[in-house]
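Appendix C reproduces, verbatim, an entry submitted by the partner laboratory led by Prof. M.T., so that reviewers can inspect both the input and the predicted structure.
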Amino acid sequence: MASGGTETFPDLGKNCQHRDCNHLDFLPYICDGCQRVFCSEHRSYKSHACAKSNLSRKVIVCQTCSMSIETTGYVGQDEDAILEKHHKSGNCDPTNKKKKTICPVKGCKEILSISNTSTCKTCHLKVCLKHRFPSDHACSRGVSASASASAADGGWKNFLSCFCFKTEQQKRP
């Protein structure tokens, strides 16, 4: 039972290979530097003093064009030199900078993201959750809220009339 697990399930889990830990972990991490098994507490390069920790990746973002630049291959160069090289390369185009989209409803300054965006089913406009209903964002293609409500009520009444019982007067010819 040296590699981990329990008596019933000997292949279940692994023991942390940190010299002071040896914790049985059922979701162990394998270090991509030294290929050893660690628990969640010792999984980082720093926590287990990995000798091959130079595999970490670092990315800087250009403030001009919002492009991500990986700095892994630039050993010994500082970030300013890497950004200067990027600016001179011709790949830095300020027109490619992504602007944050905001809700198009007048007076609303909500920034639209994946979690707070709703697309209107009638006009296909992307708005924030506060303005997701057609009446809240002055829907251009949709019918007014009162007209749609009255149409819905009429449809419901027609549906119920099929199942209603007839009164005694209506039964007699």
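The chain has three domains: 1-55, 59-96, 100-165. Additional entries are available on request from the coordinating office.
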